[in-house]
């Protein structure tokens, strides 16, 4: 089953859900804020996406972090921050089972097979 990870109120996530709805491919929607982010789920995502690629340094959550939390970022620190603040994860994430796609632009999911 295809899973779309994101946030309910994120505009880009809404566009991604609309694209998936239009494709007719069944998918599960996972809201990172409401459904949560467990350590095993984060590790699953990190099997296919580098940790620093997954970390959203443009988010409001990132901007609101204390400066000491942002300094000297490494993989372990990024993991800890994402577990504490799931909204630090770039979104949406589309997990097809074979790959995880980060972000969404119109047409990005046109090649997804059900």
Low-confidence stretches: none
Quick one: CATH superfamily? Glutaredoxin
CATH architecture: 3-Layer(aba) Sandwich
Q: In which range does the helix fraction lie?
A: 25-40%
Strand order of the largest sheet: 2-1-3-4
Judging from the principal axes of the Cα atoms, what is the shape? globular
- Give the total of beta strands: 4
Q: Quickly give the structural class.
A: alpha+beta
- Would you tell me the overall average pLDDT? 95
The helix/strand order is EHEHHHHHEE
Q: What is the CATH top level name?
A: Alpha Beta
Q: Can you tell me the number of structural domains?
A: 1
Largest sheet: 4 strands, mixed
N-to-C CA distance: 9 Å
CATH topology: Glutaredoxin
**Could you tell me the radius of gyration in angstroms?**
14 Å
Number of distinct helices: 6
What fraction of residues sit in β-strands?
A: 5-15%
Explained architecture:
The chain has six helices and four strands. With 114 residues, the chain is of the alpha+beta class. The N and C termini lie close together (9 Å). The protein is globular. It has helices at residues 11-23, 39-46, 51-54, 60-64, 67-70, 75-84, and strands at 2-6, 27-31, 93-95, 100-102. The chain has one domain (2-102): Glutaredoxin (3-Layer(aba) Sandwich), CATH 3.40.30.10. It has a four-stranded mixed sheet with strand order 2-1-3-4, covered by helices on one side. A hairpin with a 4-residue loop joins β3 (93-95) and β4.
Features:
Glutaredoxin; single chain; 114 residues; four-stranded mixed β-sheet; alpha+beta; 39% helix; 4 strands
Topology:
Layout: E1 2-6, H1 11-23, E2 27-31, H2 39-46, H3 51-54, H4 60-64, H5 67-70, H6 75-84, E3 93-95, E4 100-102
Parallel strand pairs: 1-2
Antiparallel strand pairs: 1-3, 3-4
């Amino acid at each position: 089953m295809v899973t779309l990870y994101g946030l309910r109120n994120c505009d880009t996530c809404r566009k991604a859900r609309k694209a998936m709805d239009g494709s007719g491919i069944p998918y599960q929607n996972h809201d990172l804020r409401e459904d949560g982010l467990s350590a095993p789920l984060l590790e699953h995502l990190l099997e296919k996406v580098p940790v620093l690629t997954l970390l959203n340094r443009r988010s409001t959550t990132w901007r609101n972090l204390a400066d000491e939390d942002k300094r000297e970022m490494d993989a372990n620190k990024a993991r800890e921050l994402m577990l504490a603040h799931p909204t630090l994860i770039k979104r949406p994430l589309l997990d097809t089972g074979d790959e995880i796609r980060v972000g969404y632009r119109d047409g990005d999911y046109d090649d997804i097979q059900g």
